[in-house]
Amino acid sequence: MTQKLRVAVVGGGIGGMTAAIAMLRHGMDVQVYEQAPQLGEIGAGVLMTPNSLRLLERMGLGDPLAKVGAPVGKGSQYYRMDGTPVAPILTTDSSGWNGMYGMHRADLLGVLAATLPDENINVGHKCIGFEQDDKGIRLYFENGATAEADIAIAADGIQSVLQKHVVPPSRPVHSGSVAYRGLIPAEKLPSWPKGVSQLWMGEGKHFLVYPVRSGSLINYVGFVPSDERTKESWSAPGDAAKLAEEFSGWDPRVRELLAQVETTYWWGLYDREPLEKWTSGRLTLLGDAAHPMLPHLGQGANQSIEDGIALAAILAASDAEQAPAALETYERLRRPRTTKVQLGARDNGRRYDSEYQDLATRDAEIAGSVSFRSWLYDHDVEAAAHQAMAGVK
Ligand SMILES: Cc1cc2nc3c(=O)[nH]c(=O)nc-3n(C[C@H](O)[C@H](O)[C@H](O)COP(=O)(O)OP(=O)(O)OC[C@H]3O[C@@H](n4cnc5c(N)ncnc54)[C@H](O)[C@@H]3O)c2cc1C
User: Least crowded by CB within 10 Å, which of 218, 229, 275, 317?
Assistant: First the structure.
């Protein structure tokens, strides 16, 4: 019997954890190495869209996700800053399946962490070094530990330490905007519409609202221009009064919500130019380590989940010797799609921030974005992975 493929995943975020769960289910020997002393996420929302939710449901996570998700559906709407309706927000795939949840990031990671057995997770392991030869890889950790495996997956986020072993070092690109984010208990806004996502678009700014945690919390994000370069952390405390001032004169609904904000956090918005390569021998990149993107299509986490599922499906047919070729197949499958999403997120940010002479043109583009969204939401990356593998046989 061939030996199980040994996989080391560096980073226990949404992408790394999804990949590890999927690989374990395909019978691989997986270890996740996470720098933090425990798995966790700082609170705010992430919108799960049909392209990733169908994959997580297929892995049997439908029920736990339904317990913590807040369904987002019909009635979701784009507005101009003064409240003029622009177009509905698409919340289904082309079959009409409404696979969309607003989720608290901690709840999503909690579901993933509860699914992966503890024996497959090593917290307190900050990776600081990497070596490979034609037989396998070795990781070095700050705590003095080392680990060996057949391949390594760098799922260590936008500031990836492993990325430099694949491509020359480069700096993340600052977008010129920051996002203020926070959560408001739903009972503080009793007349706020339930089960919808709403987005207001003004000059240089936009404002996004959707529910999380079964609808008990309302998640808001205010995007505003800024020269200040924060780290790509979003845990820096922000000033609620300054945030309200940024959106004074906007739709009364936005102001009503902002009047309830007590605590807010801000987050510098960065992405990277699409990378020309994700794989070097027995090491490949995944999630934000491979394709950090602006949040204007709500796809960073969703694409990381697609990566993890695709990688696991492709590796399932490989042994240690074949694994480097499988990593190349994964990259060939994933890089064109995530590049399109990275660049699409930049374009959409310009729409949301009304960088148009003529707002009617912008509004028409927003209304017409249904076809791009359908391309995003209809994709079944697992089926695509099987096709990609058939293509290389
Ligand atoms: C506030 C916020 C809101 C967002 N909203 C959305 C949204 O609505 N929809 C969406 O799809 N995406 C959203 N995103 C983007 C999405 O969250 C990210 O794209 C996604 O989390 C990427 O997952 P990842 O696992 O690749 O990276 P990360 O989540 O960054 O995880 C990386 C992990 O690696 C660990 N790590 C880093 N370095 C090391 C090391 N040297 N050794 C060991 N471990 C290490 C980190 O501690 C972390 O746990 C949002 C992002 C943020 C920050």
Answer: 229
47 in contact with ligand 1, CB cutoff 6 A: yes
10-residue mean pLDDT series, the chain (393 residues): 89 98 98 93 88 98 98 98 98 98 96 98 98 97 98 97 95 91 96 98 97 97 83 68 95 98 90 96 98 97 98 97 98 98 97 94 97 98 94 67
Quote the CA–CA distance of 46 and 304 in Å, as a whole number. Answer: 13
d(CA 324, CA 316): 13
Asked if residue 304 has its Cβ within 6 Å of ligand 1, the reply is yes
What is the model's pLDDT at position 230?
Answer: 58
Residue with the nearest Cα to atom 53 of ligand 1? 234
Q: What is the pTM of this model?
A: 0.96
Q: List, in order, residues 6 or more apart from 32 with CB less than 8 Å away.
A: 9, 11, 12, 16, 17, 20, 116, 120, 121, 122
Q: Does residue 213 line the site of ligand 1, with CB under 6 A? A: no
Task: Name all domains of the chain by residue range, CATH numbers in brackets.
Answer: 6-171+272-392 (3.50.50.60)
- Of all protein residues, the one whose alpha carbon is nearest to atom 38 of ligand 1 is 156
Residue 210 annotated as catalytic = yes
d(CA 68, CA 70): 7
Please report the atom of ligand 1 found closest to the CA of residue 179. Answer: 1
Burial 219-235 (b: 16+ CB within 10 A, else e): bbbbbbebeeebebebe
Residue 212 CA to ligand 1 centre (angstroms): 18
Task: Tell how far the Cα of 375 is from the centroid of ligand 1, in angstroms.
Answer: 24
Give the separation between CA 320 and CA 312, rounded to whole angstroms.
14
pLDDT at 1: 46
* Selection from 162, 201, 177 nearest residue 362 by Cα: 201
The finding on whether 18 has its CB within 6 A of some atom of ligand 1 is no
pLDDT, tens digit, for every residue of 241-267?
999 999 999 999 999 999 999 989 888
Active-site option among 33, 210, 265, 270: 210
Structure tokens at 65: 């996700």
Q: Evaluate: CB of 182 within 6 angstroms of ligand 1.
A: no
Q: Ligand 1 in contact with 13 (CB < 6 A)?
A: yes
